[in-house]
Specification:
This protein is α/β, with parallel strands linked by helices. It has two domains: about 150 residues, 3-Layer(aba) Sandwich (Rossmann fold); about 120 residues, Rossmann fold (3-Layer(aba) Sandwich), CATH 3.40.50. About 30% of the residues lie in helices and about 30% in strands. The protein has eight helices and 14 strands. It has a seven-stranded mixed beta sheet, with helices on both faces. Strands 1-4-5-6-7 form a five-stranded parallel beta sheet, with helices on both faces. A hairpin with a 5-residue loop joins strand 9 and strand 10. The radius of gyration is 20 Å and the shape is elongated. The termini are close together.
């Protein structure tokens, strides 16, 4: 079965990198926005009998990129594709994985169900909550960028470094980094006041006179990270902070908020488009080869 790689508009740079790693050309697609906001998608090549991988993180604006992915899948199926795999490096709506007050929609489950209507397989990287895997009726391949980020972190570690999870939800993730880097781990107890405001209440672990490496799966508004750094500084850590996360959404004024922190380095992956941030010591690690290697395995007869 012949393999094709196609992509939406959410992250064309990553799509090109994955295609280059596979030594293939991206399948030509045309995606247009109509004046009334509708999206029209067409696939220019015949895909009859082929195994097609569609690369599209559901990054902001998540709803538009999700619809674009579904339309692209429909166009590929109508051009004869036999098997479709959604390569969704960043899975939007993952934080809507449960009802907090008993009256919300469970967005993560709904999106999983929508993808199942068009795809046989889903490939994603570092879900916000691994338990979301249970929402998928389609076969899910869940990759982790933690080893890639840990390797990038090695270059900036010092003898006094310590891994810090910014909240209780990231403690297991912090332990993964600590095991890979042979470092101690601490965590912060926080209270979320709103979508943008977070209050760090207590640091669990000795961070005094140490260089913290604060990790998480994603950075959205930066509220959790900023609150964590402020708590660490108040507890006597060295003003040499490293931050690492798989998904760097950096929405709103996140970059400006980070610019006021004593950052040694900010490391994220390219699951999302990363614009230049000259005010920050930013570094981007590519997941392209990791994703390409899995696609090779999946496309092998």
């Amino acid at each position: 079965m012949r393999m094709n790689i196609a992509a939406g508009r959410a992250n064309p740079i990553l799509a090109e990198a994955i295609a280059a790693a596979l030594d293939v050309q991206l399948t030509p697609c045309t995606i247009e926005d109509f004046p009334d906001g509708e999206i029209q998608v067409s696939v220019d090549d015949t895909l009859r009998g082929n195994d097609v991988y569609l690369i599209q993180p559901t990054s902001p604006p998540a709803s538009k990129h999700l619809l674009e992915l579904l339309l692209l899948a429909d166009a590929c199926r109508r051009r004869g594709a036999v098997r479709l795999t959604a390569v969704v490096p960043y899975f939007g709506y993952a934080r809507q994985d449960r009802r907090v007050h008993g009256k919300e929609a469970v967005g993560a489950r709904l999106i999983a169900d929508l993808l199942y209507t068009r795809f046989e397989r889903i490939l994603t990287v570092d879900l916000h909550n691994p338990a979301i895997e249970g929402f998928f009726s389609a076969h899910l391949e869940h990759l982790s960028a933690v080893p890639l980020l840990a390797q990038a972190l090695r270059q900036s570690l010092s003898a006094d470094s310590i891994i810090v999870a910014p909240d209780l939800g990231a403690v297991k993730l912090g332990q993964q980094y600590a095991d890979l880097l042979d470092l101690p781990v601490a965590h912060i107890q926080k209270v979320r006041l709103s979508g943008r405001q977070v209050s760090a209440r207590r640091v669990v672990g000795d961070v005094r006179n140490r260089s913290p490496v604060v990790i998480d799966d994603m950075i959205s508004t930066g509220g959790t990270m900023v609150s964590a750094v402020e708590a660490l500084l108040a507890h006597g850590c060295l003003p040499e902070i490293t931050i690492a996360a798989t998904h760097g959404l950096m929405v709103g004024d996140a970059a400006q908020r980070f610019a006021h922190l004593p950052l040694r380095k900010l490391i994220v992956t390219d699951t999302l488009v990363q614009p230049p941030r000259p005010s920050l010591p930013a570094e981007t690690v590519s997941v392209s080869h990791m994703v390409a290697e899995l696609i090779k395995v999946l496309s092998t007869p």
